[in-house]
Amino acid sequence: MVEFTLNGRKIRSQMSPDTRLLDVLRGEFGLTGPKEGCGEGECGACSVLVDGKLFNSCITPLANVRGKTVVTLEGFRDSEEYKLLEKCFADAGAVQCGFCIPGMIMASEALLLRVPHPTEEEIREGLSGNLCRCTGYNMIINAVQMAAEKGDGLW
Amino acid sequence: MVKAHYPESLNEALTIKAEKKDQSLLVMGGSDVMVVHKTAPDVIYLNSIAGLKYVEQTEEYLRIGAGCTYAELIDDELVPGILRDTMREIASPAIRNVGTVVGNICNASPAGDTLPVLYAMDAVVVAAGMDDNGKKIERRIPIDKFILGVRKIDLRENEIVSAVEIPRSSYEGMTKLSHTKVGARKAEAIAKLSFAGICKVENGKIADIRIAFGSVGITVLRQRDIEEMIAGTPVSELEGKKADILARYAEVLHPISDQRSTEGYRKKVCLNLLEDFLNNICE
Ligand SMILES: Cc1cc2nc3c(=O)[nH]c(=O)nc-3n(C[C@H](O)[C@H](O)[C@H](O)COP(=O)(O)OP(=O)(O)OC[C@H]3O[C@@H](n4cnc5c(N)ncnc54)[C@H](O)[C@@H]3O)c2cc1C
Ligand code: FES
Ligand code: FES
Fold this sequence. Notes:
The structure holds two protein chains of two kinds. Chain A is α+β, with helices and mostly antiparallel strands. Helix content of chain A is 37%, strand content 14%. Chain A contains six helices and five strands, in the order ββαβββααααα. The model of chain A has no long low-confidence stretch (mean pLDDT 97). Chain B is α+β, with helices and mostly antiparallel strands. Chain B has helices at 10-20, 70-74, 81-88, 93-96, 101-107, 115-120, 143-146, 224-230, 235-252, 263-282; strands spanning 3-5, 24-27, 42-45, 55-57, 61-65, 124-130, 136-142, 147-149, 152-153, 159-167, 176-182, 193-202, 205-214. In chain B, the strands form four sheets. In chain B, strands 4-5-10-6-7 form a five-stranded antiparallel β-sheet. Chain B has a three-stranded parallel β-sheet with strand order 1-3-2, with helices on one face. A three-stranded antiparallel β-sheet of chain B has the order 11-12-13. Chain B is globular and about 65 Å long. The interface between A and B is medium-sized, with 31 and 27 residues. One FE2/S2 (inorganic) cluster (FES) binds at residues 95-100, 132-135 of chain A.
């Protein structure tokens, strides 16, 4: 049994400690924000925040979040930051099939928490572990730039 | 279900390791272990040991605790710039938030990105163990003796690596420190090959030179005999010696061809990077 805080609630997972955090989130807690793309840490579709830092939940053993705070897209949805990111992604036309977007949003949030006014280079770097097969990235970069400008003071 | 252990101190971890021996698996960030689905009846999760997260300096050494992640080390000004630059090029932010230098060493992949720089700096691996009387013992092993082959390391079944030590003389006062990783992309790329060169020019002479190549063989290639031959050379004579130096390295570089690159490409680019490094010393 592993205890941690998930989206603001203290919870206990009954799964084996070596289970992938991704399977715990989706299978045991029904959170489908984190997606499985590659399952090997390469694509970022499964991104979550652990103590405010970006993690790939597909290569994080459940044991490694013991006592920590995990936030998935669902736990972040009601925040002002999320609403702004959502609007900017829509306005910039940054979403096509949408599969990578939850991960992109989590990576954007992790970046903006660290660097509230990133340069284009810093945005590309911050999202470098998140792959998108549809958009060609430029619109996603624009969306994050837009959010950083409009969200002055939010992060 | 595996039996998970969450030691809170190194001593506690060593006690468990001494009992479970090779029935147990050590996990730090898990970024290698999880990808290859490694497991064991007992898994010892080391990442809640706060005492392994430190960077400290003694007169002679910089010591990096086994719990330090890349992201933490990149932000730490005590860590030599060449090593921080190397870590900035590893994978992606999410991997750098969990991956550790000690994990990179213990994983002993020929493509481990921190290895050429660590070899060039004569890094020393600190392996801690517990003897039968419950007394802690430490072995200090030079990195080129610690890494024995692909995923083979000189770690005994009761031991845990507690730190890596870098002699300060291997980077302080050096005049040229250079590292290049050649990969298919900027992020998320396993190295086709990599190069690390460190050199100290003093009174117009090469006082110290270290050259290491990664991803070109089972382990990092460093040729102390050739380095010793170069040491002492006046910088003004290096240009004339260059062809001989390159020929000597050409003789010992025998990279393989695999899905990431070919033997010919690897060798050519290694020698180009070396030549570039030597040219930069001459300037
Ligand atoms: C998507 C992705 C991209 C990557 N990109 C790169 C890259 O660009 N360059 C690169 O070099 N690597 C890369 N890696 C590999 C990996 O991230 C690194 O090797 C990392 O440094 C491993 O550290 P860790 O703490 O996560 O190791 P873990 O997975 O926890 O452990 C790795 C190995 O070391 C052992 N070990 C760990 N800590 C100790 C200890 N204290 N004592 C004894 N044994 C120990 C474990 O038992 C295991 O065998 C990548 C991995 C992924 C998933
Ligand atoms: S599914 Fe986790 S990084 Fe791709
Ligand atoms: S929008 Fe389809 S993968 Fe990014």
